[in-house]
Amino acid sequence: MNNDEIFKGRARVLDEELAGRVSTPGADALLAEVVSLERVPEQRRRRLRAPGRALLGVAAAAVAAGVVVPAMLSGGTISVVPQPGESQPGVPQPSASLSAPAGGSTAQQILLAAAVATERAPASGDYWRTTTVSRWMLPDPTRGYMLEGSRSLETWLAVRPELRSWRIRQDLGVKPATARDEQAWRAAGAPASWRYPEDMRTDNLFSVPSRPLRTAAGERSAERLYGKWKGAAGHLIGGPLTWKQVRALPSDPGKLRSYLEEGIGRLDLAGSGMDVKEARAHILLRDCVEIISRLPASPEVRASAYRILASLPGIRAEGEVTDPEGRRGQALGYREEIEPGVFARVQLVVEPGSGLLLAEVRRHTTDLADGRQVELRYSTSFQAIGWTDERPRLPARRD
């Protein structure tokens, strides 16, 4: 695996409150659900070995086809700074970790509740379907105002060889991000498209779009998956996995963690410019999120990925929030340092009752030409993750 590809998303994660707590109206109900549902076999509750330095982080996501990539570019390192005296726990025993904290539920409890719910998800179907809506922000080419764009993406991975796998996408258009931005856009003549110079200043916060951005939504198009995609069920540890390999993933959280760590240990990280232990921790956590959000693994494997995340420090509960699609979920937040002194605030929005990762939202700031500091926000909302016997609704346009 190319080191640049692995580490393009690297970042420094700073822990604000390792055992962050939050008070929300649904906290007591959530806790009761965790306590009542966490009935896993003893061998699956054993404590996991903690890595040398653990972190909870997600690599920067990218909008496909080079439209825009809110970047976590090279130059930083990855680390977690635990609170003084805080241990590096493995997956906890329910009796020890699920007692009610003062004021609400911890991130650990929310992740364990999601693990339990994930185990109840359907275990088979004709297709593994992942449907997302990505939203992103960046300045216009003059840095006079902010734009917001979005794109939908459906991935239908067929289990049986007689079925076809598809990727269906649609650009949903670009618009001024706020009312103030709309005023500046109108003052600039209300352009319907934007072309970016290759040498535009980005401060390492985003990549310059390689093609013009447009206000109008694009046509929905489908691409049949061939070549390496035809027999692949997803990606993990920097490479593609076959369906057979995915089915063989261990469902025990300790064994799954060992499997991931052994695979990561075989990667050549010497040229990454990072501490090797930190680099391995980064890939481990990124792969856990990949298992939860995209990989067609069994419910037990995906639940174990949640349990591994619950064992790691560096994340705090931030209460009930509304995700970019208007859905309510529990926010789990942390900070990333993407360049020295430049921080991004990251939220994972989880629905503990279903185990669904609703969204991942990343925020940081940049400045416009007039010196005004504005928010840069990138989000991926997961509308569907899981097995289905439905068939994709294919558009007329096929790429």
What is the H-and-E element order?
HEHHHEEEHEEEEEHHHHEEEEEE
- The Rg value, from CA coordinates, equals 21 Å
The separation of the N and C termini measures 28 Å
Low-confidence stretches: 1-102
Which structural class do you get from the secondary structure elements? alpha+beta
Structural summary, described in words:
By secondary structure, this protein is α+β, with helices and mostly antiparallel strands. Helix content is 22%, strand content 29%. It is built from 9 helices and 15 strands. It has helices spanning 3-7, 27-37, 94-97, 107-118, 179-187, 243-247, 253-265, 276-293, 299-310, and strands at residues 12-14, 127-139, 146-158, 166-176, 193-194, 213-214, 221-224, 232-236, 239-242, 316-322, 328-339, 342-351, 356-367, 373-388, 397-398. Strands 1, 2, 3, 4, 7, 10, 11, 12, 13, 14 and 15 form an 11-stranded mixed beta sheet that branches. A two-stranded antiparallel ribbon has the order 5-6. Strands 8-9 form a two-stranded antiparallel sheet. β8 and β9 (239-242) form a beta hairpin. α2 (27-37) packs across α4 (107-118), α4 (107-118) runs antiparallel to α9 and α7 (253-265) crosses α9. The two termini are 28 Å apart. The model is unreliable at 1-102 (pLDDT under 50).
